[in-house]
TrEMBL record:
It comes from Caballeronia telluris. Residues 671-746 form the Carrier domain. GO terms for biological process: lipid metabolic process. Belongs to the ATP-dependent AMP-binding enzyme family. Residues 1016-1039 are annotated as: Disordered. Gene3D superfamilies: 3.30.300.30, ACP-like, alpha/beta hydrolase, N-terminal domain of ligase-like. One of its GO terms (molecular function) is acetoacetate-CoA ligase activity. InterPro entries: AB_hydrolase_fold, Acac_CoA_synth, ACP-like_sf, AMP-bd_C, AMP-bd_C_sf, AMP-binding_CS, AMP-dep_synth/lig_dom, ANL_N_sf. This is Acetoacetyl-CoA synthetase. Keywords: ATP-binding, Ligase, Nucleotide-binding, Phosphopantetheine, Phosphoprotein.
Length: 1039
């Protein structure tokens, strides 16, 4: 964590603005949370005051009304204000004429420096020349430009006369340029046409010729350099330096234009169809950028900003606006020729604020670069990263190898030409998180039309000035509405996944359209990428789903696409990896990927298929295109290959041999260990689409979960006629141990409810199973414990065959106590349980205490109780809350769906009655739909047990309750009941995340620390003797 000093906080522009706002309103805004809350609650006051606070900004007219309209889709800001965007960027009130404004860096190492006065004069000359060519306010200008001084002059001159600029990069192919500019009917085309050694996308001059031929509206081409252009061009061609040099800069009049006058037309990536032409207004862009630069980035006159970008990406426009804060901006027209290229530029130019992306930081990390040792970075005071999710490892790398400076993760987009979450000079930088929400923007995480508890869609619930004016050519606004407001009327829905902490910091989780559904579990690709970023040898990665209709053939053969393991039914998850030079995708590397993902996230995050590729599809703005990769993986035509920088990589992905269907024939299982091990090996390799798998590889390290365990049990049963319990894999998670248990001397051990999950020394820790009947979901948590104690899992009695199901928690506990006494005859006992397991652990502790035993630890991890157990007033509060939520859902629901919604609610009533009577429901719980029959039976039986169990007064000692900060709103708050029954007291420890997140990284680590602390505090002075679990001898298969 990087924490700002008191001196830095006192000197920041954020502090100065807050003090001025407090004086203006008479309010005490003692922290950022209060400041932000005011800025979104009283957004009209906030924006009016901020505009006035920026005293060096020139504008005219009346600030009233601040905003016309109250919903985000139709609101209009400052309709009576006029200003000139370019005039304000070049204002000599912000910094003097001799102040540095621009440093142009070229690939050959040469530099050109321009002062503020010189830049203003060059812009005025070109603006005068454009007026002489007949360009007027409202005309549209297209530009294909490198990131250099000429591009800056062009953009500002176009804005100075009130025309609208659309820019792209010369690396873009002709088709991509036509897709962007043709709908705009531009009047003029500015272009760099000279080839450079680092150019991609074809000949720049040929692309310009093809583009010009597709633009009948063009009246001329302005060359930004003395480059080649074929003689068959019939349009007038001007050279930037020649005509503009004749113009009189002093004669140019800097006129003001309406606040919402079109300034830029930006483009969406275009990977799902033709690019959308997004129109941004001059006033909204300027005001948002002033706020982000001056308050959130703390830019001052004298700062030097370099953000690695191109003219095809909104960060180029974002950096351009920093001129309005007196900042010197740096442009670089050249390739990243070596890994240290950008650091050398930052050091040589004494850059104070450096912006880049996670891909570059990871490349530096993998190359072993030491920027702080290799370069003089003493001028650098802050860094920013955007364009993709920034992972924890990159924060640590910057801290260790660049310096103790804030690395600000910022995220927004071309859609708003700004940021929704970003930095703050007054707040600490927390690893993996953006520091705060942007002032004036009511940014929230939503799910199903209301605020989410945890990860949700990023929305903005209030109007904001930088909302685009609309899409060009969308006369009725229907496409604009569909893109941003159809999902949540009146609320901007951005398309990103985000999770906010209680402090207001944000953790980005990737794009909503990239979310994968694994057996009903939503998996965000960003969670996978976060883990992969820490694995050496992997340069880049992309995960997509492949739709399939393949079924497993148990016994003699298994149909798999190196592609499709046996657990697949309609889709599988494919991970594409780009490896570092000299690294191969070996079985060991694949195992590490699967093992780390299973351990640090969950088995649902483990890919079915891992394929090594040379490159991943990237847009021209440098962003990965999961949509294009998904089309290629599924053999579909890519919607718009021209939107990609490297479309050739799609053919390589589409034709990858690892996606070809093959049928693996399994060897016969036989009846001996020698025949059973090869059978299990072939089965596992088919299931995991991984070869080779060694006999001692761990099922769970490879990504196995309860669903895959059920598949394995089904295959073994169909191939041999024998039945094994799911708990078997907890005891024997390798091929060798599993084969030994099946044919060896441990036959009866397979039916035990007690499973050794981790060996150790000292008094055991017992883990009670959850509503799944298993403790598999706690494997990663147990692996994270530092305590040396052995850990035993208590799993549900097998429900196959004629064994009666256990539907009573007290009955379960009696059986588990008997099993626990096998390894620990007397107390003190230590127990914990996750979710429903907390109630089982409590009942076990109750029974042991009544038997005279001492309880060392009872820990309940986010355990809920059935609502009927609550005291009367909390029960009533829960019921009223439930009714209120359903009514709100009903009100927001289209009328056509309300009848079905109500019928569904009433249909649940008989099942609720059945559960109270101790019978399983006719309809399984929503999170159990689709489970294999064996797992479904366990899940629904435990559901009955939880409904019927009423905790009694507990006097065996204090209860440790670990509570997830994000609650399950559909479940009743258990605290009123638990505090009542905990007669010896209860300690509550809160951890970040929700009910599911708390047992996976990163939140799992806090839970593990809490358990470790409790085990140290409560460790008994002496250790009772431990016994080994019972085992029986015999021959043949264990059933």
């Amino acid at each position: 964590m990087v924490v700002p000093t008191e001196q830095c906080i006192a000197a920041s522009r954020m502090s100065a603005f807050t003090a001025a706002l407090e004086a203006h309103t008479g309010l005490l805004l003692k922290d950022y949370a209060k400041l932000h809350a005011f800025s979104v609650r009283e957004y009209r006051t906030f924006w009016r005051f901020f505009l006035g606070w920026c005293e060096d900004i020139d504008w005219g007219g009346d600030t009233e009304p601040v905003c016309v309209g109250d919903d985000c889709e139709h609101a209009t800001f400052f309709p009576r204000v006029e200003l000139n965007y370019a005039d304000n960027l070049l204002s000599l009130k912000v910094a003097g004429a001799d102040a540095p404004a621009l440093c142009e860096c070229r690939a050959d190492g040469s530099r050109a420096r321009i002062t503020r006065g010189e830049l203003r004069e060059r812009v005025a000359r070109l603006a005068s020349e454009l007026e002489g060519l007949g360009v007027h306010s409202g005309d549209r200008i297209a530009a294909v430009m490198h990131n250099d001084a000429q591009a800056v002059v062009t953009a500002l001159a176009v804005a100075a006369i009130g025309a609208t600029l659309s820019s792209a990069s010369p690396e873009m192919g002709a088709d991509g340029l036509v897709d962007r500019f043709a709908p705009l009917s531009p009047r003029l085309l500015f272009a760099h046409t000279a080839s450079r050694g680092f150019n991609t996308g074809g000949s720049p001059s040929a692309n310009v010729v093809q583009l010009a031929a597709a633009l009948p509206s063009l009246e001329g081409i302005v060359l930004l350099e003395d480059g080649p252009l074929p003689s068959n061009i019939t349009l007038p061609v001007h050279l930037l330096g020649a005509p503009s040099a004749k113009a009189d800069a002093t004669a140019f009049v800097w006129r003001r234009f309406p606040f919402n006058h079109p300034l830029f037309i930006m483009f969406s990536s275009g990977t799902t169809g033709k690019p959308k032409c997004i129109v941004h207004g001059a006033g909204g862009t300027l005001l948002e950028h002033l706020k982000e630069h001056r308050l959130h980035t703390d830019l001052h006159s004298g700062d030097k900003l370099y953000f690695h970008s191109s003219c095809a990406w909104m960060m180029w426009n974002w950096q351009l606006s920093a001129l309005a804060s007196g900042v010197e901006i740096v442009t670089y027209d050249g390739p990243v020729a070596s890994v240290d290229t950008l650091w050398r530029l930052v050091a040589d130019e004494r850059v104070t604020v450096f912006g880049t992306g996670p891909a570059y930081l990871k490349m530096c990390e993998q190359a072993g670069l030491e920027p702080a040792q290799q370069f003089d970075l003493s001028a650098l005071r802050a860094m920013m990263s955007t364009g993709a999710v920034l992972y924890d490892g990159q924060y640590h790398w910057v801290r260790e190898h660049v310096g103790n400076l804030p690395l600000q993760s910022i995220s927004g987009g071309t859609d708003i030409i700004g940021c929704f979450v970003l930095g703050n000079p007054n707040l600490p930088v927390i690893v993996g998180e953006a520091q705060c929400k942007s002032l004036g923007l009511d940014v929230q995480a939503w799910e199903s039309g209301s605020p989410a508890h945890g990860v949700g869609q990023l929305v903005c619930a209030n109007p904001f000035p930088s909302r685009p004016l609309g899409f060009f050519g969308d006369a009725d606004g229907s496409r604009f509405h569909e893109a941003y407001f159809a999902a949540n009327p009146g609320v901007w829905t951005h398309g990103d996944l985000v999770e906010f902490s209680t402090q207001g910091s944000a953790r980005m989780r990737g794009r909503c359209d990239g979310v994968l559904n694994v057996s009903g579990v939503n998996v965000g690709p960003a969670e996978i990428y976060r883990v992969l970023s820490d694995i050496p040898g992997i340069r880049d990665a992309m995960v997509v789903d492949r739709r399939a209709s393949l079924t497993s053939v148990a016994g003699q053969g298994v149909a798999v696409a190196a592609g499709v393991p046996v657990r697949s039914r309609e889709r599988c998850i494919v991970l594409l990896v780009v490896l570092q030079d000299g690294v191969a995708l070996t079985g060991a590397l694949q195992s590490q990927v699967r093992r780390d993902l299973a351990r640090r996230t969950s088995p649902a995050h483990v890919p079915d298929v891992i394929l090594a590729v040379d490159a991943l599809p990237m847009t021209h703005s440098g962003k990965p295109s999961e949509a294009a990769a998904r089309d290629a993986i599924n053999g579909l035509p890519v919607a718009n290959a021209a939107a990609l920088r490297n479309p050739a990589c799609l053919d390589m992905i589409r034709q990858h041999p690892g996606l070809n269907l093959a049928v693996n024939t399994l060897p016969p299982p036989g009846t001996t260990r020698e025949t059973l091990e090869p059978y299990l090996q072939a089965l596992w390799e088919s299931m995991f689409s991984l070869s080779p798998i060694a006999y001692d590889d761990n099922f769970f390290d490879l990504g196995g979960d309860s669903l895959l365990a059920a598949e394995l049990a089904t295959h073994v049963h169909q191939a041999t006629g024998l039945t094994i319990s799911l708990a078997t894999l907890l005891t024997a998670p390798t091929i060798a141990r599993l084969a030994n248990m099946i044919v060896g001397d441990a036959r009866d051990a397979l039916s035990e409810s007690l499973v050794l999950m981790r060996a150790g020394v000292g008094t055991p820790l017992f883990v009670a199973h959850s509503i799944t009947g298993s403790v598999m979901e706690c494997l990663a948590l147990i692996g994270a414990l530092q305590s040396p104690r052995p850990v035993y899992g208590l799993v549900a009695r097998r429900l196959e065959g004629n064994e009666p199901p256990q539907q009573d928690v007290a009955d379960m506990a009696r059986g588990y106590v008997d099993q626990m006494r096998i390894v620990q005859e007397h107390g003190p006992y230590a127990l914990f349980g996750y979710s429903f397991g907390g109630l089982i652990a409590m009942e076990i502790a109750q029974q042991l205490h009544r038997a005279g035993e001492e309880i060392e630890l009872l820990c309940m991890l986010d355990t809920y109780v059935d609502e009927h157990c609550l005291p009367w007033y909390p029960w009533l509060r829960h019921q009223l809350g439930y009714v209120a939520r359903q009514c709100q859902t009903l009100r927001e629901m289209p009328a056509a769906r309300r009848g079905r919604f109500l019928r569904g609610k009433f249909a649940c009533v008989p099942d609720r009655v059945r559960l109270r009577l101790g019978r399983t429901a006719h309809k399984p719980a929503f999170d159990a739909v689709g489970l294999p029959p064996m797992l479904l039976r366990v899940r629904e039986t435990m559901r009955v047990a939880m409904t019927r169990y009423r905790p009694r007064r507990y006097r065996a000692g204090p209860i440790l309750y670990v509570n997830a900060v994000t609650p399950m709103v559909e479940r009743a708050d258990p605290m009123p009941l638990l505090r009542r029954v905990a007669r010896a007291g209860m300690k509550v420890v809160e951890v970040e995340g929700d009910h599911t997140d708390m047992i996976v990284e990163p939140y799992m680590l806090a839970v593990a620390r809490t358990l470790d602390d409790a085990l140290r505090e409560d460790a008994p002075p002496s250790q009772p003797p431990l016994r080994s679990p019972r085992s029986s001898t015999g021959s043949g298969y264990a059933i």
